Amino acid sequence: GEIGLSGxxxxxxxxxxxxxxxxxxxxxPETFTRVTHYDLSLLLTTDPKLKSYLTNVVSQLKxxxxxxxxxxxxxxxxxxxxxxxxxxxxxxxxxxxxxKESSAPREKSIKTIQHEIRSVIRQITATVTFLPLLxxxxxxxxxxxxxxxxxxxxxxxxxxxxxxxQPEEVRLHSFxxxxxxxxxxxxYKKTESA
Amino acid sequence: MIGKLCRxxxxxxxxxxxxxxxxxxxxxxxxxIHSILKLDMPITNAPMARWQRKASSSNTSALSGLSPxxxxxxxxxxxxxxxxxxxxxxxxxxxxxxxxxxIPIRNSKQMDVATFLLTKENEPADTNTSVTSETQxxxxxxxxxxxxxxAKILHLGGKPLNAPEGxxxxxxxxxxxxxxxxxIKKSRYISSTPDRILDAPDLRNDFYLNLLDWSSRNFLAxxxxxxxxxxDATQGDILLLMKMEREEDYxxxxxxxxxxxxxxxxxxxxxxQLWDVENQKRLRSMASHTARxxxxxxxxxxxxxxxxxGHIHHHDVRVADHHIGTLTAHAQEVCGLKWSPxxxxxxxxxxxxxxxxxxxxxxxxxGNDSQLIRCWSEHQGAVKALAWCPWQPNILASGGGTxxxxxxxxxxxxxxxxxxxxxxxxxxxxxxxxxxxxxVSAHGxxxxxxxxxxxxxxxxxxELNGHDDRVLSLTLSPDCSTVATxxxxxxxxxxxxxxxxxxxxxxxxxxxxxxSSVIHQSIR
Lengths: 194, 524
Description:
Chain A is an alpha+beta fold.
């Protein structure tokens, strides 16, 4: 695996996204396979459409991360039938621009990367235990909040924020990559009490 | 709206479970966590407590050592250091960098917004346009976390992705057993704010004292320096029961008798006083100890007292020669003392980290050390918190001080420790709340809160936050619906978190028998 300024950052997010999709049951569990990356056993999807989608998004994200033009990454889970937003995983990214410009790129040891990926995955796993069940078929979308003056690349479109009406929110542990600090939270729709 | 309970619980869980990865010093957040965990730094910017100011102004030498006997230079990793001579060490509290409250992340953007939002009502209205755009910007920032106008939201074109047709999310099978916080039927509501706050000025900030007790007649007694106040929880009146003559003396412990008409008071001048509350008269002043009496517990007509000397005395209050027994197993201040509800065992906890169990002496004769049943040394900190389980006989809960932070549940018969839980914070008091079969703990450094645990699983049910400084004592109301806590922030907070279902309550009330006063006939 690559160890670079933005490499680990986006890999973490790719694994994190896969993890959320797996844990929340958006895709059938049997469509996920375990791969070894950074000496960790991690889940990745085998669904071809999803795979290609994620590859596209992640590679673009990598570029934006490197340029420090990304502010947030949001995974939105919507009800397939009604389009209502049920869950919203938000990762706020604070980029240390000075670090990017410094002459010597900060190297990250495998151990640190592992640790960070593990903590992202673990957080997601822990959070999932109390999130309400997603009982209807769901779709998901990945939104990237970028700087306003960014040129929109091919195939990307502008979108609304897709927020939840009156959500319950839980803030998760923050973690860092070599040049970014990521704060994360998950917002979900309150379920009606029986 | 943020689900406060859920968020707090999760934040607590996540921040304690996950190690702090970041080695880069640029994030002050991590530094804050580290410095908070290091409990050996003196507080640099705290104002003097009122009693300290009073002490320095009244200028007496006896007040110089107003602090727990233990040295505060105990870090989490090392084992406990034994206390030096009492009264010598200065009180030390952990440093909380930059203020009293632990605030995890200060985002400069949010601070600006916050300031703006706070002051905008007081600012004179300039021109319309500038105000609206500023307001909008502020609201936008607080809602979205940043100014929406400054960002573009992009996504990869095309329909949102979903799983192939026919796939039904079958995680339902796994999760149906657990109730999620948002969907729990809230038949029981645990408020995160206290039902009531009472002022407790001059309260001594001393871990080892037991200055709060709630009687079966619904009077809450609290000792503020050298005075005892009673708060009538039914009517709301406050009564000054007593005040010690000498300014340099102070009250060290309080304990109501079972039927609530007499109050035992332990003092710094080594006495145990007995007060008739109805007539507001002192009945006895029993001398036998050689050091202050920091703990008391009643067993019918016998009141047991624990002293800084490490000795426990039994006093039969009906007779002139009251001192009927001495127990000397503890080497340091006896700060925890509780007779079991059935009166068969006395549990004592000391600054020497020991928990001792003694039987009730036979036929009124003096109890002595040879009868010591159990002596547990598992705690690594002072054991002040002791509580007997009211619905399960022979079960005792104990809680350790700063270096220990564990709750331990013991079976007195078998002598074994049934379970143990690290609460991450100094435990000053424990009480069993029978209405929902829970255990409630009061904490000092570093959380300064009250936690409700399900018994016997010891899973966290709720956290009651609000005190600004360490919680020193906890007591349960006679109807078991409320806990009262007193803290170094000089307030008493009442948390009505255990109110019972009205139907269950009626059933319970039918079972309660009235107790007759044993002492009233016997006291001369």
